[in-house]
Amino acid sequence: MTQVEESVEVAVPVRAAYDQWTQFADFPRFMDGVERVEQIDATHTYWVTNISGVKREFAAEITEQIPDERIAWRSRSGPDQGGVVTFHRLDDTHTKVMLQLDHDPEGMVENVGDKLGFVTRKVRGDLERFREFIETRDGNATGAWRGEV
Fold first, then answer.
1. Which parts of the sequence belong to the Coenzyme Q-binding protein COQ10 START domain (predicted)?
2. Total-model pTM
3. Which of 45, 77, 78, 109 gives a 20 to 30 Å CA spacing to 59?
C-alpha cells in the first residue's frame, strides 16, 4: 500500500470548500482522469476513471463524514484504495484542504508509475485544479463565499 499526502490552500471559507468537495458529480471538472462519479446514496458512490489509458470502474463508501472537517472513504470494489480529506479553517476566507490517499497499485504499469511519483503529481495537480475551480466560481467572484452579497 502506498500513501500520498498533499494539501492546498484555497481562498474560500471552510464551509464553501467542504460543500464543494461533497459535490462528487463535479469531480471530473477538476480531477484529471475522472470521467464520472455517481452518488448512489448518502454513503456510496460509483466511479469511472481513465488514467493514462487504464480504465477503471469501482464503488466507494464514505466511512466517515464530519461537516466542515473531514470525509473518509474506502473502495468497495475495483482497485484497493481509501483516504481522507480534511478541511482546516485558516481564517474567515481561507481554508487548507489536506488529502491523504492510500492505494495499492495494480500491475506492472501502475507499480512503475507509482515508483516514479505519478500518483503524487496527479494528486497535487487535482488539488491545484480544485483551488482554481472553487476560487473562480461565480459565487466566489461576486463575493458570495465571503458573505458580501
1. 10-128
2. 0.84
3. 109
